[in-house]
Amino acid sequence: MTAPRAAGVHLPWPEVPATVRAWVDETLGSPVVSWADQVGGMSPGSATRLVAADGSRAFVKAVGDQLNPDSPTLFRREVEMLNLIGADPLWASLLASYDDGRWVALLLEDVPGGHPDLADDGQMADLLEATDRLVARLGAVPVPRDVVATRISDPGLIDVRGRFRTWATALDHLAELPDDLVPPGVRRDPDRLRALTAPLLDDRERQLTHWDIRVDNLLRPEPGRIVFVDWGAAAVGPAWIDPLLARLERVEDPWFDDSLAASPALAAAGDDLVTGWLVSFGLYLAHESTLRRADVGLPTLNEFRRTEARRFLSAAARRLG
Description:
It is a single chain. This protein is α+β, with helices and mostly antiparallel strands. It has eleven helices and ten strands. The protein has helices spanning 18-28, 71-85, 121-139, 160-168, 184-187, 190-201, 241-246, 254-259, 264-269, 271-291, 301-320; strands at residues 32-37, 46-52, 57-64, 94-99, 103-108, 158-159, 207-209, 218-222, 225-228, 235-237. The strands form three sheets. The chain has a five-stranded antiparallel beta sheet with strand order 1-2-3-5-4, with helices on both faces. The protein has a three-stranded mixed beta sheet with strand order 6-10-7. The two termini are 30 Å apart.
């Protein structure tokens, strides 16, 4: 079975401030009588399935800036994105949101079931089909001019091109990155790496994207159905991004390379752009995990970065050949 790669340390529901818990009771119209804290994801806040006295169910996620100064921004971004795209069976609907300036909470539709097993060919195929539908659905939503954040600390949607520009700076530190993260096949030709990553900076395509498709952000309520959750990284970028992310669970396997042609968006983007993305993001994660301090309230994040850097850069070395 595929286990969530991102596993943070969540705040138990009883430790969420009483004001937030009271808001949940009032919004549900019935007091919460039982709860089940969830695993997966990096937020230090709560992630809890709730059952109210009247039998109604919901999922709540809540975080305060004292747990991590950046996490409330991600929650505000998720609220903005879910309000923008509305309801759809492809994702969990937003029921209500709370924001007192310090604590932000989302009350969401409780989607039954667990994470899909992406080692199973059938369930992976379900994800790829659902992702193609997600791309089409999000592509049909107009992108408001003022929706993109001008700074990374702002709650607006992420500018994917801006992130690509940030990642590109990691190439300047290639010689400083440790050998246990960067394979020799990636180090061999820095000029080729720059040629592969340069087109990322020129990408002009813009549509709404989830930008964080991984197994801990997916639910399988029934066979054949995939539901996308956690929109804290929602972004504006190219249509090929989400189909690429959906395949990353198997990035170490040649299946990944063979699967790209099945996505119209990835086929149009081309193999070199995918390799450039793997190089760019892998080096960025390697740089972040070794040359900066651990993030407040996120003790497992740097090891996650290191693990993903190894996976992406090993795949890039395979593709560089």
